């Protein structure tokens, strides 16, 4: 009985993997936030036929941006730019263009997340057996089939933004203001050195790097954390060829839900700004956004 059940499982599992390989079907839903990060990393590492020439590295601030298909979004909610760098380094081919969110670039990566992709045998198995990847778990397949598809090219209605009450928003903003008033210089410098090594690898291979800043609430802009990050990144990278800067637009009217995360409609508006300005940057050689 056990032998027969095992044989049936092997046949079904083999058929499932053959179907996924031949159909190249992609399932994008996930059950929880951390799994979203794993799925994004797995797709980047294991989908050999879909290796993007451009990739975005960031945090939850840029994780839901509306990007063109040519840019792979490797921004990881709850994780950091450092984790995205480790994912990119897992494969041998470096992307031609890298967009790096500057807001929290300095935070250290997660060792436990890195360990998921450090086993070569495990990586090889998931390359050949797509049924072992998180995106192809039965619950995720079911969610992908049942969940209604949204129009990715339609601006979300502002009235549908999940904006907290004024009192709650004030408390959230006050908390962010307290955080932005202090700077961990050692942490920022360590992150700067890590980023420098990665940026030099990208540009040495003939690639381009665009360091972009996601807009935050106006009261956070003049505070030490924002100003120190801007200054240190400029000093370190502005003299390098093929490194571009995209600051948040001045005097913007974007709405945040907690001081740092843009509402759905504002994120759409910033995404359109991002598309237009990065296209302009790369079409004008050696031109940087002031």
Automatic annotation (TrEMBL):
Protein name per its UniProtKB record? DUF1574 domain-containing protein
